[in-house]
Amino acid sequence: MKVSLIAITPDVEKVIEDAGRTCYLSHDKMTAESHERFIKMLVGKQHDSVLEHAYATFRIEGGSRCFTHQFVRHRFCSFSQQSQRYVDEEKFAVVTPDSIRGNLEALGLYTKFVEDAREAYRGLIALGIQKQDARFVLPNAVESEIVVSANFREWRHIFRARCHPAAQWEIRTICLEMLRILKKEAPSVFHDFVIDEEKKFAQNLKIVV
To answer: pLDDT for 58-89, tens place per residue?
Structure first.
């Protein structure tokens, strides 16, 4: 699995501060460092609409279709995903959960199913069936590639839901990596998310400024 930041609003925290200060007509208070305290104030007061002026776009490679089926349920994002209608999937790779990888009997069943699906797909293609119909036999474990764009308000919502300990492990792993990146790119916006690297989840702390 690979997560890459491919675009982000330039001078992102300054853009947020500039937009937010419009609400108070307080641009005269802007300094080189003022964005940090101002944005933390916005976040603490849940003045989240201002965060919608900032966007980030990620490319995610090697996540399963199980992951993408969950991810695309987020309504305020833009998605572009590898198409199984047009892309030849005869050499597809799969994501294997640790719970299956660590159980030899389960891994045997899993591997057999994957290879049976591969042979069925190849057989259908050989019979002249179009990829858009042959794909019906592909498992949810098949790796996919997806690009997603969202504003920072939505990213905060996604991280609250998907970095939680109760979130499914694959989407949590991927969202934690995106959170790590955005905490570096926009530390004031995401300062209240604390990542537990040992247990692999993040908590959103309520910060009062």
So the answer is: 999 999 999 999 999 999 999 999 999 999 99
Residues belonging to the binding site for dUMP are 70-73, 81-85, 135, 162
Residue matched to tokens 């925290």:
13
122 is catalytic: no
Residue 152, token pair as written in the block:
């920072």
Residues 134-143 pLDDT 10s: 999 999 999 9
Catalytic residue from among 37, 162, 172, 180: 162
- Residue 174 CA to chain centroid, in angstroms? 6
For the entire predicted model, the pTM comes to 0.95
Cα four-point dihedral sign 70, 73, 78, 83: positive
Describe the strand order of the beta sheet including 2-8 as a list of residue ranges: 2-8, 55-64, 143-151, 77-81
CATH of 2-80+143-204, one of 3.40.50.300, 3.30.1360.170, 3.90.1150.10, 3.10.180.10: 3.30.1360.170
User: In the chain, what are the domain boundaries?
Assistant: 2-80+143-204, 95-137
The CA–CA distances, whole Å, from 14 to 28, 30, 153 equal 14, 9, 16
* Residues forming beta bridges with residue 3, ordered by sequence position: 60
